[in-house]
Design goal:
With about 210 residues, this protein is mostly beta strands. The protein contains no helices and 17 strands. The strands form four sheets. Strands 1-2-7-6-3 form a five-stranded antiparallel β-sheet, with no helix packed on it. Strands 12, 13, 15, 16 and 17 form a five-stranded antiparallel β-sheet that branches. The chain has a four-stranded antiparallel β-sheet with strand order 5-4-8-9, with no helix packed on it.
Length: about 210
């Protein structure tokens, strides 16, 4: 009998609910479920305390959402159970060890270690008024969001003109603002940058063409 082999694991982020695809061979089959079994494990040894999800003998309270289990592909929908309790979360840079056993033969585990990436964010920038008059105050508003939540209040967004930093704003409910009245006459290309943290990946907005008349 062939041992199961993991050839690839899709990006694992810090989000609780996400699509994780494990590809390879010899996985056997299993019906979809949410909880623990003897046949799959995601072990996060980088966390403090370290924790495991999905493996019943470990008796952890974090479980997996298994959406599909085929011989060459397993699709997960993220984590359930005690996610967020006792630091049972994923952080950027954590080493996540993925293990799979074949439910029909018991062979395994196939193993692969994946580095956790930050949950993707999107930064959107707007300005008001646009166009503006020379010396008039212009408010730039950056909205930072992700699919599941917003970055924490108090984090910083930079407002940039090329390589020059015009100023910063502080996030509150996913929104940061910056006001300036010193833009030169003409068109300035302004963009916003969110730097990210231990949970969220950074992102940069599309530029806003601010016209000063």
């Amino acid at each position: 009998m062939a041992q199961p082999v993991i050839t690839k694991v899709s990006k694992i982020t810090t989000a609780q609910f996400q699509t994780i695809v494990i590809t390879g061979s010899g996985f056997g089959t299993h019906k979809p479920y949410t909880g623990d079994t003897d046949y799959i494990s995601l072990l996060d040894e980088s966390a403090s305390p370290g924790w495991q999800a999905g493996y019943e003998p470990y008796n952890d309270t974090v479980t997996l959402i298994v959406q599909k289990w085929e011989d060459s592909k397993i699709v997960l929908g993220g984590f359930s159970g005690a996610w967020g309790t006792y630091n049972y979360i994923l952080s950027v840079g954590d080493q996540e060890q993925v293990e799979v056993w074949n439910p029909q033969t018991g062979l395994g585990p196939a193993q692969l270690v994946v580095t956790v990436a930050g949950e993707s964010t999107t930064t959107t920038l707007t300005s008001m008024p646009n166009p503006s008059a020379k010396g008039q105050a212009v408010t730039f508003t950056a909205d930072v969001s992700s699919t599941s939540s917003t970055p924490p209040d108090g984090e910083t967004v930079k407002f940039m003109k090329g390589k020059a930093e015009l100023g910063t704003g502080t996030l509150s409910a996913g929104v940061a603002t910056f006001v300036t009245s010193t833009l030169p006459v003409g068109t300035s290309s302004i963009f916003a940058v969110y730097g990210g943290d231990s949970l969220f990946a950074g992102s940069k907005s599309q530029p806003v063409k601010q016209v000063v008349q």
